[in-house]
Amino acid sequence: MMKLDEIQKRLLEEVADLHNVPEGAFNIRSNSEAVGRKSTANIEIVPKKDVAGIDIHIKPFTKNESVHIPVVMTQSGLKELVYNDFYIGEGADVVIVAGCGIDNCGTQDSEHDGIHRFFVGKNAKIKYVEKHYGSGSGSGKRILNPGTEVYQEEGSMVEMEMVQIKGVDDTERTTTAELKAGARLVVRERLMTHGSQRAISTYVVSLNGEGSSADVVSRSVARDNSFQKFDAKIVGNAACQGHTECDSIIMDNGKILAVPGLEANCLDAALVHEAAIGKIAGDQLIKLMTLGLTEQEAEEQIINGFLK
Amino acid sequence: MLKLNNVSFLVNDEGQDKEIIRNINIEIPDNKLIVVTGPNGGGKSTLARLIAGIEKPTQGSIIFNGEDITNMSITDRARKGISFAFQQPVRFKGIDVMDLIRIASGKQLSVSDACQYLSLVGLCARDYINREVNASLSGGELKRIEIATVLARGAQLSVFDEPEAGIDLWSFKNLIEVFENIKKTIKNGSILIISHQERILNIADEILVLKNGKLEHQGKKEDVLPLLLGTQSAVVECNKKEAWKGENI
Fold first, then answer.
1. Which residues pair with B56 in a beta bridge?
2. What was the ipTM of the complex prediction?
3. Which of B95, B143, B192 to mutate to test the interface with A (most CBs of A within 10 A)?
4. Cβ <8 Å between B92 and A304
5. Which residues of B touch A (CB under 8 A)?
6. How far apart are CA A41 and CA B18, in angstroms?
7. Cβ-proximal residues to B51 (8 Å cutoff; 6+ apart), any chain
8. Of B164, B156, B173, nearest in space to B30 by CA
9. Cross-chain Cβ contact A292/B79 below 8 Å
10. Which CATH number is B2-243 given?
11. How many structural domains comprise chain A?
12. Which domain holds residue A257?
């Protein structure tokens, strides 16, 4: 248990800010095997029997606890499909840190497809952080295709932070959410692609209950020859509030396609979308250059701030 | 010491060359507060941008401390000791006030050091230091932060392009005090302010008047200001009050 080499440790640090064995419940998966797992009195992690993956059961009214379930892959050519289901009990308030780091030094593609399902109980509150990171100099691609399904009961709150800044060659992210009355979903996605990477992010959020709300915001930067597609749809089936925003910077030959979608099926649904794509504003560069930065340093400051 | 020798600046306007700056010669001595005034469209802001390196002269040369900086980049000029406060401050998503002041100072400032610069421009530092320099700030707030970044640079030559534009009357009075303070404390440094506000002209050591891209007057305040009173080049406060009626920061 917990025998990790330096590359695996570095990946863990990148995706889960972990320098050591985490506090609380955790499951660490490395090269398709569980290398560490711990349940607590309130959070139980059980491996699935029929498919790869785990069930995470969080007892009702569990407060101030966290679950870490990072995945690292260092074997070139590995392909896996993993199902993780989270059952979050009524009134619980927890932080869940997932994330996947792939280091591919070989010639074959490495791929991790993680399907996460969240069953969020009445009035429960979760913060979910998912970071993706790729490294390694091999010609084999680093591929991540996360699928996320969120089912929110009345009055629940889900805050998701999705980050992919470096090294992932190909991603297709699909997120669906169904919200009952008074439930709220907040998504903050930060994405940077470079080289010839491709990242597709699709959201379908259904606001089914009265007083439910969603705020889906993506900030992204596409550099070199990379391509991104942000396809966010909010469906208002009741008196609800929905907002989606795509704010993007393109550089070099980067391309971004933003497809904001709103569907109102109820007279009292209030839905808003915003999308803005453009290069770095010239006056921003000039301002930072008058403070003594070179053009390249100014660009880095602007991008770092934008994705902060 | 900054010298502009026979500097001209032409732009191509719908196929026709238009001279914005016409063969001007200017000397900005050390330890002085110089105000450049003149009617709108006279070339004042262009002059400031030529000094900062945002525009390059089409003719002539710019000498800073004996070195020819005519073809030097904005960055190199900044590093040589020229700083520039924009007329319309730039907004950034994600960069906060602390980041900007740190970049300006060029060192790892402590929060309390950074706060001092904000206090100098009349902002309650605690409320602003972690604010993003984005559209959530009003024009007046942005303007003061812009001036704070120039103060943090502590450059040998600080150029302010219409610092009073976009701020309300109350802030304007404080702004005069800010410049008076800078003037008292400058050591081996000069301030160049583009403005046609009479109160700013009043604190100048020297006044330059630019009209139609040409230098019309250059001399001590005592000599030049009486020629300007009552003209577009020296607008009194009440006009500003009219212009900014109803504006809040």
1. none
2. 0.90
3. B95
4. no
5. 52, 54, 73-75, 78-79, 83-84, 86, 89-90, 92-96, 99-100, 103-104, 106, 149, 153
6. 79
7. B2, B4, B62, B82, B84, B157, B159, B192
8. B156
9. yes
10. 3.40.50.300
11. 1
12. 6-306
| B74, B95, B106 ranked by CB distance to A290: nearest | B74
Would you tell me how many other CB atoms lie within 10 Å of the CB of residue A264? 16
Q: What torsion do the CA atoms of B106, B112, B116, B118 make, to the nearest 10 degrees?
A: 80
Contact A71, A103 (CB under 8 A): no
In a domain, A1, yes or no: no
- Tell me the shortest Cα–Cα distance from B150 to chain A, in angstroms: 8
Who's near B98: CB < 8 A, 6+ residues apart?
Answer: B111, B114, B129, B130
Please give the Cα distance from A305 to A21 (Å, whole number): 31
Structure tokens at A204: 């379908």
Q: A290 and B92 in contact by Cβ < 8 A? A: no
**pLDDT tens-digit series, residues B216-226:** 989 998 888 88
Give domain status of residue A41, yes or no.
yes
Assess whether pLDDT exceeds 70 at residue B246. no
B242 pLDDT above the threshold of 70: no
Mean pLDDT across chain A, nearest whole number?
A: 91
Beta A25-30 vs A33-38: how paired, if at all? antiparallel
* Chain B contact for A295 (CB, 8 A cutoff): yes
Scored b (16 or more CB within 10 A) or e, A109-132 reads bbbbbbbbbbbbbbbbbbbbbbbb
Is some CB atom of chain B closer than 8 A to the CB atom of A276? no
Residue B69, min C-alpha distance to chain A (Å): 14
Determine the Cα angle at A286 with ends A280 and A292, to 5°. Answer: 120
